[in-house]
Amino acid sequence: MVDYDLLSKGISSNRRQGKIESVVYTLKRIEKVGIAPLDLVDETSVKLMRKQFRSMATSLQVEKAIDLMEILAGLGFKIKELVDPFDVVKSCVDISNPQLAIRYAYLLPHTEILLCRIIHGFGKKGDMVSVMTAYEACKQILDTPNMYICRTMVDVCGLCGDYVKSRYIYEA
Hints:
Blueprint lengths: L3 H13 L3 H13 L10 H15 L4 H13 L10 H10 L3 H8 L5 H15 L2 H14 L5 H14 L2 H9 L1
Helix pairs in contact: 1-2, 5-6, 5-7, 6-7, 7-8, 7-9, 8-9, 9-10
């Protein structure tokens, strides 16, 4: 027997104290026992989580934030409601981590739009290696060529001064 009220109060207490990592791991364990984690989280709790995730996502803790969001996504939480996706992408670009940005993009329903933003962010920074990493991720998730991604790639190749690569991408 599990006392839902006591469990909910414990989770709320941890959230108020800023122990978001503890909250997420508790929700994960609760789900394994057969209790729906979403039933224990009210709107006030989501607001607190949103505030904590936003501060993590715009700091050097972005990797920890994405790790926790991956767990929450597996539990049925709507990740887009927790943070502004473009803030997370900007943080990943700032720390030059395309794999982290791609992991985050896969958590959201409109992955290809976010991948365009990732490509453009690394292109503005002049990081063609990261651009190509994100582009390869795009090719893996899409069955057919996407004109927005191709156009973004051509624009980014121009930003980086690699006009030959833009022609190769356009012809592919």
